[in-house]
């Protein structure tokens, strides 16, 4: 790979300056030892939510609310973010982050529980955007649920891993992602693109 490509990737990560609220949430995520999207993926999610006018967003994996803040920043002012996490401490941090950023209470639904128990209770075709950033081994099952939850024309965004491109890496998480990537790529119901931002983001638009 050319040095320009590597430099361009780094540049993209630093190109957009996060808000103070996002930076606070990133620090809280670090304190809690939970992952969070970087500025490349975060700013992309914000731009994507704005581009598609996402009023109803489902997020699997709230963390400390970093990706949630980016998403809310791109959604219309009456848009609602539904976000699921099984860790009470993460949810508490995310609620604090949303409140500190002045997000109206009614714009977020922070749901406690295991994604695979919560998602089946959600309404078919009701979401413009589903963002997945949780247990990678469960991705195939999240995708099954997301396919049902998305409206026609809705978008699925899967937080990826840069290890997926290395065929020598065959741990269960990486294999699950590889399988899901191939399945979506070959699924005529979706238009798919793998974006090289952050650790990667797989986009699948439901026809
Ligand atoms: C990488 S973090 C999400 C970070 C978040 N998207 C952000 O950028 O701020 C993954 C989160 O998924 C949650 N998680 C893991 N397995 C889960 C499951 N089965 N159901 C719900 N949440 C889960 C973890 O508790 C953790 O908070």
UniProtKB/TrEMBL annotation:
Domain of life: Bacteria
Protein name stated in the entry: O-methyltransferase family 3
Record's keyword annotation contains S-adenosyl-L-methionine: yes
Alphabetical GO biological process terms: methylation
Keyword list, A-Z: Methyltransferase, S-adenosyl-L-methionine, Transferase
InterPro entries membership: Cation-dep_OMT, SAM-dependent_MTases_sf, SAM_O-MeTrfase
GO molecular function, one term: S-adenosylmethionine-dependent methyltransferase activity
């Amino acid at each position: 790979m050319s040095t320009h490509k590597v430099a361009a990737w780094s540049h993209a990560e630093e190109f957009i300056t996060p808000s103070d609220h996002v930076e606070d949430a990133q620090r809280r995520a670090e304190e809690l030892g939970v992952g969070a999207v970087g500025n490349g993926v975060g700013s992309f999610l914000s731009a994507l939510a704005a581009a598609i006018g996402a009023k109803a967003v489902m997020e699997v994996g709230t963390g400390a609310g970093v990706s949630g803040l980016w998403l809310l920043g791109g959604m219309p002012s009456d848009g609602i973010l539904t976000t699921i996490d099984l860790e009470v401490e993460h949810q508490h941090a995310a609620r604090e982050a949303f409140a500190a950023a002045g997000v109206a209470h009614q714009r977020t639904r922070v749901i406690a529980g295991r994604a695979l128990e919560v998602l089946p209770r959600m309404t078919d075709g009701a979401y413009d955007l589903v963002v997945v950033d949780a247990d990678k081994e469960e991705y195939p099952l999240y995708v099954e649920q997301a396919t049902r939850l998305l409206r026609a024309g809705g978008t699925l965004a899967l937080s990826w891993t840069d290890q997926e491109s290395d065929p020598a890496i065959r741990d269960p998480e990486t294999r699950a992602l590889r399988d899901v990537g191939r399945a979506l790529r070959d699924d005529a119901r979706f238009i798919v693109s793998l974006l090289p931002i952050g650790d990667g983001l797989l986009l699948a638009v439901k026809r």
